[in-house]
Design goal:
Layout lengths: L10 E7 L5 H11 L5 E3 L8 E8 L14 E9 L1 E3 L8 E3 L12 H10 L2 E5 L8 E2 L2 E2 H6 L9 E14 L2 E8 L5 H11 L5 E11 L2 E2 L6 H6 L2 H5 L14 E4 L1 H8 L4 E2 L2 H4 L6 E6 L4 E7 L4 E7 L7
Parallel strand pairs: 3-12, 14-16
Antiparallel strand pairs: 1-3, 2-3, 4-11, 4-12, 5-6, 7-10, 8-9, 10-11, 12-13, 15-18, 16-17, 17-18
């Protein structure tokens, strides 16, 4: 293949992002390595953060939003008694007001009690260094200009929060949370709740996302070293993004109707599904067709379909 030739490949790459790369930089590098015509990611990681970053190629990009609301697990290291302008090690660091960091001394019992108080549904004020829009601009553009914008608390869910290690003024913890949770803000809130004036992240790794886990992922360095044929074997199918959606298998006639944009009557596999529920669609040969939706009339309507290259 000549340099610059783009391939119409489809699939999902589980990337183990290294620190210092933005998610877009990692995406563009992976796109170059695979000579992919089209690529997108399923949600960003901060440049300092490492870990799981699923990247979609080709037809899989149609389903990249499926993981936006998925639960995530992070391994985070906090430094107590200090604050950062960005909430992590990339910002300007200062001693928390009224705190002597060298005197931070917490009992294991207090740590456990405070962490448990954060588990469940709670609220969180998003950080200024975030991509949330204000008058059409990301908040981080205002933060970089030194402008503070008032933010309203948002509801978040912390499913689990546990301490992996604690020494001095440093805590290593694991958090499993719902979408919209900022671990940087969680670190700051934990530091204040522990009586340390605050805290910031010195390290952050996303170890799980939806049904994917970090040991399944590949680094850019490893991918660069592989022969092209071996790289392609690292890609997962597009429907791997949709494991939480129930599957509906249809016959050839129904599959053709769906691919032509027509709804089909529901069948036994879909009769127990409530209206509005999205489903994975397959033909009798187990070929993935895309996403459908159960209508109020009991039909299965095509929602987001892939390009099927072979006749049914």
């Amino acid at each position: 293949m000549s340099a610059g030739t783009k391939r119409h490949i489809s699939g999902v790459l589980l990337l183990d992002k290294t620190s210092g790369f933005s998610s877009n930089q990692a995406l563009q590098t992976a796109k170059r390595i695979f000579s992919a015509h089209k690529a997108g990611h399923t949600g960003t990681l901060d440049p300092m953060a490492t870990g799981l970053l699923p990247i979609c190629f080709g037809e899989a990009t149609k389903f990249s939003s499926a993981l936006l609301g998925a639960d995530k697990t992070y391994e985070a290291t906090l430094r107590l008694g200090y604050m950062s302008t960005t909430g992590d090690a990339e910002g300007k660091i200062s001693i928390a007001v009224g705190v002597e960091p060298q005197c931070v001394d917490l009992t294991w019992e207090k740590l456990q009690t405070v962490l448990k108080s954060f588990i469940g549904v709670t609220t969180q004020v998003p950080p200024m260094y975030s991509a949330i829009k204000h008058h059409g601009k990301p908040l981080y553009t205002f933060a970089r200009a030194g402008v503070e914008i008032e933010r309203q608390p948002r509801e978040i869910t912390i499913h689990d929060l546990s301490i992996e290690a604690y020494q001095g003024n440093e805590i290593r913890m694991r958090v499993t949370c719902g979408s919209g949770t900022y671990v940087r803000t969680l670190a700051e809130d934990l530091g204040r709740a522990l009586g340390c004036g605050g805290a910031y992240l010195t390290a952050l790794c996303r170890s799980a996302l939806g049904g994917f886990n970090l040991p399944q992922a590949h680094t850019l360095t490893a991918l660069e070293a592989m022969p092209p044929s071996q790289r392609d074997s690292c890609l997962l199918p597009a429907d791997s993004l949709l494991g939480s959606f129930p599957a509906v298998i249809v016959d050839s006639a129904a599959a053709l109707s769906l691919l032509q944009g027509r709804a089909i009557p529901s069948h036994p596999a879909g009769e127990s599904l409530s209206p509005g529920r999205q489903v994975r669609l397959y033909d009798k040969g187990q070929r993935f067709l895309g996403l459908g939706e159960i209508s109020t009339e009991g039909y299965v309507s095509p929602k987001r379909l892939i390009r099927v290259e072979h006749s049914l």
